[in-house]
# Entry
Amino acid sequence: MKTVIASVALLILSASMAAASPGHSGSHEEMAVGIPGDANKATRTINVTMFENEDGQMLFQPNTFEVKEGQTVRFSILNKGELDHEFVLDQKEKNAEHRALMMKFPEMEHDDPNAIRLEAGKRGNIVWTFSNAGIFEFACLIPGHYESGMHGTVEVSAM
# Structure
């Protein structure tokens, strides 16, 4: 019975997130940070490495990017760490909301074009078109990873 109640609660929470927050739970509407990009229109590839260091920090390298409004970028992401890591691209506030949800449901699966979760040693891609100028964030939202340093900034300059 507890499992059924927990499952129903999770479904309700997922539905409310989808309605309230474009870009989560499979919604592919335009977000403040942009829209999923067409790989054939990518004008730049940014190689990103995710890893843990000997001091226990969890990091992205590089941890800052500058792109232009309207630019389509392919993020080629490699997890060189020993743990699973995520790359989630969004507004800082949206990542904070998502991070709080991940604390409650750490094994939550993602179906978002602005996010990818990779096992140790795996590589993946996100292709993204930055349709708005501003400062955005990319982060690993697995509990404890953000707090260990796994976040960075994307500055999108106006055309």
Notes: DSSP finds two helices and ten strands in the chain. Helices lie at 2-20, 92-104.
